[in-house]
Structure formats: structure tokens, C-alpha cells
């Protein structure tokens, strides 16, 4: 059955963007529940979990190879081996789930497995800095189960999905069909109701915003010979932003430390914002007096200048874990020794809004996005996923942004170097987007919002505690038996 688990894990990736075929992910959960429930021993269950995870991460996170080989200059065999090793490490997490053979199969399918799976996903959000990229709840962004996102975040959606998959397995296997049908209908009805609930309210008038996509190829982004052309591209686009009150440039739009940038360029960018009576957000690395490097976003314009420093850094890409400096030397990664920003940073007051900025990979972490809420009225992400080429990563990144908008009840704007630049409504709907690998401006009406969803107030903890309670119930029931 290992091969079936491997195929089911790989098929689950079809539910993520760009394919967005949710039934594939849901069906894979049903198959996984079936395999786990019928496993002959805990060891067999662990083996099945590993192969399922290998299929899931081997297909869904294969874009790591692009970064290592194409931009890191790692030879093909070494890059492929490193990617496989990384995916195999991630696959160890699903292997942790070992079923309780004393519990009835229906209880395992509907309670034990969903709770354990959700906790496994959640543990991937913080263990060794975390990698929550392929949480199954993201695939439900366009169906009723996404209604649980503003209540308990993406892990509440994953839990609802896994419970629904267990109920479907019960129906197919002939276990308590009437009860399973009723509970499944109730679960979907709750999702519909929650989806229709408006958790936040508009604040002020809509604001004209211009999101800039410079389309600077990663191969030449840090080439000194391309520097002047890169700056001219972004200055020209910013100056063509019409009446935008807020102009947003991508992560490291200026690929040089802020103190090394020609003041005339900064004045030119500031002038583009001031002519519109607004502000501009610029992605640029910063050096502090203490010698620290920061991946930052600074504001220029009519409002007092402020700065956001990236908090959640990418291992090996932005900081080097102790003992692994040789990897950075092999890959020749520029600016790979950043320091973390503080977690106490507050929203940036620009263009009459309170903007919670996050940088690239940070928007994979819902619990970190809500740090600046409910004070913030708008979410803005600046990124450079050009590191992963024309792979699954940019589309998956957009899907993550949609989930963050839905969790927080806030409009979410994302400006990416090579794409996907997009504007996302508070309900997770993509309003407008630019095609990848095109240079241009995305002009939209941005609406600030106030209020707090339950997720903003309590984070992941309701979903986590519910899962722990479910596991405790199954354990106590088994002891009483």
C-alpha cells in the first residue's frame, strides 16, 4: 500500500494553486484515512504516512530544486539530492501519526486521524522556524469549509476537511451512515453560515493604490551592471502611477543597501508619491549602526517616513543556521546574513491608512500576520519569488495570501518582482492580478477595514486545543475500554 499512499500524497497537490482542484486533495484525505485505519500496526501506519508525505512534498515543494540549481549554481545531481532530502525530512511529520488500534475504526476516521493530522500541520508552522506551505486548509479557499478560516485559521479549515473526509470514508465503508450523513451536512451548513458572516467593516473611503511589478530577472537582479537600469524601471513605473495615493514596490526593489542609494533616486521616488498627495513603500535592504543587515520596507512621501523590518527569515536564504555557513558559500547567495526585525513593530501610517506590511515568505504564517491586528486596516505583502522561477511557488504564494485575507477580514495587496502581483478582497477573492513575467502597474481601489475576526483575537489556539481535546477523548475512551 506504500505506492498508493505515495500517489495519494502527490495527487493532493492538485488542490493547491495553480490547479486549484479541491476534490483531488479531499479524495487524497479519504484515501489516507482508509489506509491508516486499516494499517496492521503502528509501524505500518507510520510508513504509510511517510510515503504520503513524500508524495505531497516531493510534488508540491519541488520548486526548491529551481532555487538550488538555477540560481544557486548547484550541480543537478546535488540539487536533486538536496531537494529529495528536504522533502523526505518533511515527510517524517506525517509519519508521526500512529493510529490507536483500541478505538473503533469510525472514531479513528472522524476524530483521531483529523485531530492528529491537524496537529502535524500546525507543528510544521513552528518546528525549526517552520514550513507551513502546504497546509491542506489552503485548498478549500473557494468552498464552504473556508468559512472556518476567520474563526480558527487555516488549521481549523484543515481540521474540518479531515473530519469531512473521515465522514465520507464512514459512508463508503458502511459505518453509521445516517449519523455520518447528518454530521457531514451540519459541517457544510456551518461552513456556509460562517462564510456568509461579515466579520469586519469598511473604514473610510476607498483609496487608489498602484502595485509595481518591475519584472527584473533573478539572474541579473544583483548584477552591478544592471543596477542603474533596475532603478530607472522602478522610478519610471512609480512616476506613471496616475492618482494613486499609495504606491507599493516589491521586496529589494533596490538591490543595494539604503545608505548606498543615490539620494537623487530616493527624492525621485518620494516626488512620485508627493505629487499624488500620498506615500510610497519601497523594498530595500538596510544596514544599522550596529552592523546588522535588515530586509526592510521604508515609506517615502507626505507622511513621516517609517520602516518595517522582516521578522521571519528564510533559513539559508536570509540567515545561516550555526554550522551551515558552507552552504551559503557553495550557493553564492547574496545578502544571506540578515538580522530579524522585532516582533513589536506596529502598522505603518501611510496614505491615511494603517498598513501591516509583511515580506515574502512571512505570509505563510497566519499567527505572525495577526501581530499587527486589529490595529491595521490593510495588509500589504512585498515579495520576490523570482528565486523559484516558473514553478508552482508563485501561484502557491498567492493562495497563501488569499487565506491570510480571509483569516483576518482585511484586503490584502501583494507586489511581487516578477509576479504574481495581485489585489485580494477581504473574503479571499482575487480582484485583479498581473500576469507573471510582465512589467507593469496594477491599479486598484483599496478599502481599509476595521474589526477583528475570532482568528485575529485567538490565533491558532482554538483549533489546536480542539485537536488536543479530541485526542484526549479518544485516549480516555480507549483506557475505559
What report would you give on this structure?
- By secondary structure, the protein is an alpha/beta fold.
- The chain folds into two domains: 2-198 and 460-480, no CATH class; 203-452, Nitrilase/N-carbamoyl-D-aminoacid amidohydrolase (4-Layer Sandwich).
- The chain contains 15 helices and 14 strands.
- It has helices at 2-12, 22-37, 42-60, 64-71, 76-91, 105-123, 149-173, 177-196, 227-239, 263-274, 325-331, 366-369, 393-408, 454-458, 461-480; strands at 201-202, 207-213, 246-248, 279-287, 293-301, 307-309, 348-350, 353-359, 378-383, 412-416, 422-424, 430-433, 440-446, 449-450.
- Helix 2 packs across helix 6, helix 7 (149-173) packs antiparallel against helix 8 (177-196) and helix 9 packs parallel to helix 10.
- It is globular.
- The relative contact order is 0.13.
Give me some keywords for this one.
44% helix; Nitrilase/N-carbamoyl-D-aminoacid amidohydrolase; alpha/beta; 6-stranded mixed sheet; 2 domains; 14 strands; globular
Q: What's the name of the CATH homologous superfamily of the largest domain? A: Carbon-nitrogen hydrolase
Based on the structure, what is the oligomeric state of the protein chains? Answer: single chain
Number of helices: 15
Helix-strand sequence: HHHHHHHHEEHEHEEEHEEHEHEEEEEHH
Mean pLDDT value: 91
Distance between the termini: 30 Å
Summarize the SSE layout with pairings.
Layout: H1 2-12, H2 22-37, H3 42-60, H4 64-71, H5 76-91, H6 105-123, H7 149-173, H8 177-196, E1 201-202, E2 207-213, H9 227-239, E3 246-248, H10 263-274, E4 279-287, E5 293-301, E6 307-309, H11 325-331, E7 348-350, E8 353-359, H12 366-369, E9 378-383, H13 393-408, E10 412-416, E11 422-424, E12 430-433, E13 440-446, E14 449-450, H14 454-458, H15 461-480
Parallel strand pairs: 2-3, 3-4, 8-9, 9-10
Antiparallel strand pairs: 1-14, 2-13, 4-5, 5-6, 7-8, 10-11, 11-12
Helix pairs in contact: 1-2, 1-3, 2-3, 2-6, 2-7, 3-5, 4-5, 6-7, 6-15, 7-8, 7-13, 7-15, 9-10
